What does this fold into?
Amino acid sequence: MSTVREATYDLLRKHGMTTMFGNPGSTELPMLADFPDDFRYVLGLQEAVAVGMADGYAQASGTVGHVNLHTAPGLGNAMGALFNAQANHAALLVTAGQQVRAHMTMQANLTNRDATRVPHPYVKWSYEPPRAADVPAALGRAIHTAALAPKGPAFVSIPMDDWTEEADPEVTPHALERSVDGRGAPAPDAVAALAARIANASNPVLVAGPDIDASGGWEAAVALVESQKLPVWGIPATGGGRIGFPEAHPAYQGLLPPGIAAVSETLNGYDLIVVVGASVFAYYPYLPGALLPEGAELVQITSDPDEAARAPVGEALVCDPALALAALNAALEPAARDVPPERDGPMEPPDMGEGNPISGTEAMAALGAALPEDAVVVLEAPSATLALRNQLRLSRPGSYYFGAGGGLGFGLAASVGVGLAVPDRPVVAVIGEGSAQYAITAFWTAAAYDVPVTFLVLRNSEYAILKWFSLAEGVEGAPGLDLPALDVAAVAEGYGVPSTRVDTGEELREALGSRIGSGKPQLVEVGVAPGMWLA
It folds into this structure.
């Protein structure tokens, strides 16, 4: 009979999970003993970075990512990244070592007290098997749980002396063979009812969310929009971890603003609002007002029962977004409505004057000019988020990843995971110099594993988003909002990533053009003018 370790690696192979992210400690070494040649271990120098890399890898690869953490301290370090992973609907198996079972009762050093409680509420399931023999079956359950909608992290705590014990001879073989398909099709009567409402509406609109991309629904979304002549809005950027519709499509109108009143005002005039693959909505800041325009109705399609239950308005169908879109296409005849108007092209960047830093808008326009069509963008630059979306107008599936939870540290770490998952696509990480500090050690992993990511660091010497919030909230005199003298390029060089600094838009275009797609990790840092860049 196989040991727990042998059975575990067989289980991971069966699920295609041969990449493991982690930062090992003494309680994890027994799991890593005799590490299989067909597996890849990706070392992160801090646990939150390891989780962020696994998050990006899971989303971009479409598999369950695996991250192994160091008992209680490592799990504690990772909590902010788990918060982001849950918001991103990233399927993660999170394992952590635990003290020897005989040591746990006396609470020896590094014992994870109440191990299953620590990661809540940011995991779907948390478990510590009662017997060593149960570990493979528990891991199998965690993998299935993570992969089922809504995808998210699942956690298993494993005592360090379990790995050389025998796996359960009856249960383990079945655990290795099981498969679970959780894609839920919408009920036919619900599809028929919604199709009739779309057909009879005078001015319906689609609001496209990230789970259209995650569920493989891009083509079905485009087909529905073109058949029904629907205008399309993207969900507020605060909650948009992925792009659910091609942003260069003529029907695409732009991003909804994040405030309650502003969303209602933007959607004024539509009588049926169909939100697909998103919550309703990721509002922030608090700007109260009507939840819907007068006379409008809202229907949400989501695979997440909690998103459906917590929506403050409208009706909801809980099912796979891609299957729902396909079913609506099958149920609807082409509409006779007028084609929606096209929005304006990207804004011309403002002239900041000779010798001054360029605008965030110009920086994003330079990136757009250098970006290949098949590129993937990972974003964590709050002051330039809207400028990037307006200037780049990304229009391929799997082309954009953003931390939907809002916790900083996702972007830099996730870009390394994305680069490992899709090495055949150019990956660009657009990172503010403040955001970079939360996952700065990811540069070492990028260099050590030769991950082909181009890092574009925007240096504005401030927390611009917080200064904007200060104005919005009427706050004066708050300390800690300036970031003088940060030198991300020098730090990245110290970790082994070749770096360069540029000042003008032309220099930025040239630097990016020669580095994106080079197959090597490289960094370009550009100074940008202070403030928020919204277009």
User: Anything to note?
Assistant: The first strand starts at residue 19 and ends at 22. The chain is about 35% helix and 15% strand. The chain has a mean pLDDT of 95. The chain has three domains: 4-177, 188-331, 360-527.
